[in-house]
DNA sequence: CTGAAAGCGCTTACAG
DNA sequence: CTGAAAGCGCTTACAG
């Protein structure tokens, strides 16, 4: 079934059918109804490839995970952002295409793959490190939105959550609970996200007039639980413990809790812990974990609207920063603030 | 940049360039090299829409989540299956397209959307219930693979994990630990997955010559933690507790653990618990949760290969069942089996 | 081994 | 308000 057959069945030209399908106004109500009926009956759907070829518009958004390919769908944070992004893009009339990375040896040639599929825009989700191929895309004419990734091209924008606010909510919570000796567990030095969280934390500590002790700042090899365990263990063995620790991820925090418990130390009585991300496990551990939750749904919706505006030349890019929330559970005790 | 320009630059015809790009053998080594060099230099990528229009092949696989739209990406099991599916499909030369469901009021018209995009095949991931639109697809000429969904069409196949094996591993573990009084916590009666697990469990209990007590079989409203808590609470209040309980999901199991602890009962001393799925949280709870892990990577890889064969008429469909593994942690104690 | 030409199914000025 | 025709960028018999 194609547009030609529909035209024949309705006794009109192909042009007329096309106009009707695209909501042109200069068609008589009568022919319009007749054609629409036939389309309805036959279940005709126009071919996207023919349409894309003719218009250079695909109504397709490319989804790219920058860096660390093996995380992708299994990363809980991005998966939730993506979920709300997908819903919102769907409402706006777009579908999503995921580039497979294993097809070419030089898998990162995102720009030419965007041309290949004629995607109308891209959402780029930040992994550990930034590939050069991402910069090529950022600088191109293709609209791009970064998630937790600062894109600065002319047709680019980004959304991220406010890392300074994250840190200042954490420090404020510790402060109100009476803690003045604050430590930190982060990932490696090449992790943007860990660095941003640490920088925000350091400046929040200064903002509250507290003294920062570099001894209490330790780092693991990644964001996972064993790294938190190892980092906390080394801190314990140093013999000099802070009263409260902020970890750059929930799994780092849970690893730290395990190390503390193994040494007979109590959470929160001996050391208070706050994690970051609010993964599912936080609710089921003992103690349950106080953490920071990012508004993933809002990040996804914002990303979708920004991309839509960029595609339709309604905006010049820019960025949105979303406010995080502190989720109070057991790992800091109830203290003064309640 | 298009094929015509490449042809001009190389001083050959468009046909010749096309043949070279598609690895036809009847081209001289000399022209081939010249054209390939120019393609390399210009970074030319052929347009997928033009190619699809000409060949009726898109190298695109449609991904569909059947039922319960709001789960989608955030479902940990399917997300991992999908991740490995995507990788494998990428190796085979396909990209993935996700249909947005919000675009049309009648969002479930998957068949016409497949035609619209000329997808070469579909992977359909099972949610709670089965929409009629899925059956339409299953019966169509479009190759489809179901994940945990029994597709029976001529061009369809499916992968799932072996629910009888899951159950018999659970019963065997309980049995070797000395437990003879076995209970079950499931989801609602309209959940295929819960039903299959329950049926397998019942038959495994019979297989070990044990007596099944219907009083010990309870059900929540879904697969989440509060349902497990509620179901376990009702069991506790009945005053008649089994010695061991298998839950149809890890979250149901964790809810049950919470209910038991609140009543001063100990896990595993008073009641042993086994969950299902091996979600991340199982490792961090106390006690850590013994559970069943499905080989999600293998399910994804198998789904990809089956779909590929279906697309290329190398197979007639059929199904694969993947063996699950029992992951022993603390929630059943160490007992006799170790 | 190479190329001219028709065709895939749409859209879009343009003429009427 | 309607339609004929060119064009989008490929592939594929077919002729040479």
UniProtKB/TrEMBL annotation, chains A, B:
The UniProt keyword set, sorted, is: DNA-binding, Transcription, Transcription regulation
Which InterPro entries does the record cross-reference, listed alphabetically?
HTH_LacI, LacI/GalR-like_sensor, Lambda_DNA-bd_dom_sf, Peripla_BP_I
Residue stretches making up the HTH lacI-type domain: 1-55
Annotated signal sequence range: none
Drop me one GO molecular function for this one: DNA binding
**From what superkingdom does this record's organism come?**
Bacteria
Gene3D superfamilies reported in the protein's UniProt record:
3.40.50.2300, lambda repressor-like DNA-binding domains
Entry-linked SUPFAM superfamilies: lambda repressor-like DNA-binding domains, Periplasmic binding protein-like I
Q: Does the keyword DNA-binding apply?
A: yes
Q: Tell me the Pfam families matching this sequence.
A: LacI, Peripla_BP_3
- The molecule here is called LacI family DNA-binding transcriptional regulator
Source organism: Paenibacillus tritici
């Amino acid at each position: 079934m194609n547009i030609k057959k529909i035209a024949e069945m309705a006794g009109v030209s192909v042009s007329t059918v096309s106009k009707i399908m695209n909501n042109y106004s200069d068609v008589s109500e009568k022919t319009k109804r007749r054609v629409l009926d036939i389309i309805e009956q036959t279940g005709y759907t126009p071919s996207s490839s023919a349409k894309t070829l003719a218009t250079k518009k695909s109504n397709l958004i490319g989804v790219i995970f920058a860096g660390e390919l093996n995380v992708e769908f299994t990363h809980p944070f991005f998966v939730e952002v993506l979920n709300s992004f997908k819903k919102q893009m769907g409402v706006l009339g777009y579908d999503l295409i995921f580039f497979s990375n294993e097809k070419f040896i030089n898998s990162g040639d995102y720009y030419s793959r965007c041309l290949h599929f004629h995607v109308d825009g891209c959402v780029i989700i930040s992994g550990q490190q930034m590939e050069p191929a991402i910069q090529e895309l950022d600088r191109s004419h293709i609209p791009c939105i970064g998630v937790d990734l600062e894109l600065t091209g002319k047709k680019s924008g980004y959304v991220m959550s406010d890392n300074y606010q994250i840190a200042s909510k954490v420090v404020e919570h510790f402060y109100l609970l009476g803690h003045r000796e604050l430590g930190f567990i982060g990932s490696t030095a090449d992790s943007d996200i860990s660095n941003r969280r640490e920088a925000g934390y350091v400046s929040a500590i200064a903002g509250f007039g507290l003294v920062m002790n570099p001894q209490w700042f330790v780092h693991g090899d990644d964001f996972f639980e064993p790294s938190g365990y190892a980092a906390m263990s080394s801190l314990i063995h140093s013999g000099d413990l802070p009263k409260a620790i902020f970890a750059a991820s929930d799994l780092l925090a849970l690893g730290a809790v395990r190390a503390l418990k193994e040494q007979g130390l109590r959470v929160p009585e001996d050391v208070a812990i706050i994690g970051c991300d609010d993964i599912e496990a936080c609710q089921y551990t003992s103690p349950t974990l106080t953490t920071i939750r990012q508004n993933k749904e809002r990040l996804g919706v914002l990303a979708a609207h920004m991309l839509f505006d960029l595609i339709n030349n309604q905006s010049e890019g820019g960025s949105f920063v979303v406010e995080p929330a502190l989720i109070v559970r057991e790992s800091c005790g109830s203290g003064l603030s309640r």
